[in-house]
Amino acid sequence: MSPSKKQVPDHSVKVASHYNQLQEVGLAARSRSRIFFMRNFNNWLKSVLIGEILEQVRGAGSQEVSVLDLGCGKGGDLLKWRRGGIDHLVCADIAGVSVEQCQIRYDEMKKKSHRNEKIFTAEFITADCSKELLSEKLDDAELMFDICSCQFVYHYSFESEQKANMMLRNACERLKPGGYFIGTTPDAFELVKRLEASDSLSFGNEVFKVTFQSKGSYPLFGCQYHFNLEEVVNVPEFLVYFPLFEHMAKQYNMQLVLKQRFADFFEEKVKKENHRSLMMKMMALEPFPSEDGQQASDSAEEYCHAKEHCDRADVRTPLVSVLRW
């Protein structure tokens, strides 16, 4: 490369460094966090999604279920796969420290399991899944997956077309016929809508902040914004233009089965008693008003929608509320 040519920063390094440096936080500390209920809500949503997909996979006749957790982090979904009774799990992530912690969690889970409980087998891979081919790193070169799960990760790959393609290849090329690629990612249309409505290049509240470099023009790849979420995330991310993503997936014979915003997913799934019970058990929504008068946020404005609902004569309190991020 000539000295005069500008080097393009590789944001994968920043992402890996950020997540490697995140400290493990105990349950007591997490319960005091202002994003406690948001985390629980996200986990409830993933639990429902994973549970329903596993039902469909088994309903289609799969006896032994293999799963690829693409961007596994510290293993936050291990218990979900355990409850789902899968047979084999491959955990892959760019952050080596996170993968080590994921493996420790898995080993502890196996150690504490009941004697006659069958826990899925697992393998752990540290790799940049937007650059490296995972199939070359598998213990079993012939392994095929029923499900690839990519939770809050895929948007990092939209830094470039090459990275987005490699990430998609890793997600889809080892899927069995009839297999599923499931995931969660920020809504690019909502982010742009909020940016355009803002008087500056950023928007947010006391818990999160999204900052763009410019507005008015949004390239298909490399459209960077910086996302800061209290205590957890402080990294560059990239918009995922979903129609393009859907088009790219067709090269792997994938077809879109479901796309929903979290609010719509919640409205649909909460109608089922088992999902409602799980939501309460996981404390996925914040009670309002709280018993001790202390809410997760000190801003009354964040609860105006809940207060308006409570002021209706036919409403019993406390009700449960989601802070509007």
UniProtKB/TrEMBL annotation:
GO terms for molecular function: mRNA 5'-cap (guanine-N7-)-methyltransferase activity; RNA binding. It is an enzyme of class 2 (transferase). S-adenosyl-L-methionine binds at K46, G71, D93, D128, Q151, Y156. Residues 33-308 form the MRNA cap 0 methyltransferase domain. It comes from the Eukaryota. GO terms for cellular component: nucleus. Keywords: Methyltransferase, mRNA capping, mRNA processing, Nucleus, RNA-binding, S-adenosyl-L-methionine, Transferase. Gene3D superfamilies: Vaccinia Virus protein VP39 (3.40.50.150). Pfam families: mRNA_G-N7_MeTrfase. It catalyses: a 5'-end (5'-triphosphoguanosine)-ribonucleoside in mRNA + S-adenosyl-L-methionine = a 5'-end (N(7)-methyl 5'-triphosphoguanosine)-ribonucleoside in mRNA + S-adenosyl-L-homocysteine. Its EC number is 2.1.1.56. It is found in: Nucleus. InterPro entries: mRNA_G-N7_MeTrfase_dom (IPR004971), mRNA_G-N7_MeTrfase_euk (IPR016899), RG7MT1 (IPR039753), SAM-dependent_MTases_sf (IPR029063). Catalytic subunit of the mRNA-capping methyltransferase RNMT:RAMAC complex that methylates the N7 position of the added guanosine to the 5'-cap structure of mRNAs. Binds RNA containing 5'-terminal GpppC. This is mRNA (guanine-N(7))-methyltransferase.
